[in-house]
Amino acid sequence: MLLLTVLGAALMLPPLVYVFDQPIAHFGIPQIVVYLFALWLLLIVGTAVLTHALPREEPGSDKGEGER
Amino acid sequence: MLSADFVIATAVGYVGLLFVLAYFGDRRARVNTRSFLHSPAVYTLSISVYCTSWTFYGAVGNAARSGLEFLTIYLGPTLVFVGWWFLLRRLVRISHNQRITSVADLLSSRFGKSNRLAILITCIAVIGIAPYIALQLKAVTSSIQAVAGSSEFGRGSLKGIDDVGLAFGVAAAMALFTILFGTRHVDAKEQHHGVVAAIAFEAVVKLAALVAVGVFVVFVGGGFENIFSKAAEAGVTVDASNTFDSRWLTTLALSVAAIVCLPRQFQVTVVENSDENHLRVASWAFPAYMLLMSLFILPIAIFGMTTMPAGSNPDMFALTLPMAFGQDALALFAFIGGFSSATSMIILESIALSIMVSNHIIMPLILRFSSGGGGDGQGVTSMVLIARRFSIVLILSLGFFYFFFTRDSDALAPIGLISFTAIAQFFPAVIAALFWRDASLKAATAAIAAGFVFWVWCSFLPSFESVSPQVAMLLERGAMGYFLAAPRSHVRAQRDRSAGPCRVLEPAGQCGDTDAGFAPDQPVGPRTHPGQRLCRCVQAGPDHARQFRARLGHRQ
Question: Among B274, B290, B338, B341, which residue's Cβ finds the most Cβ atoms within 10 Å?
Answer without folding.
Answer: B341
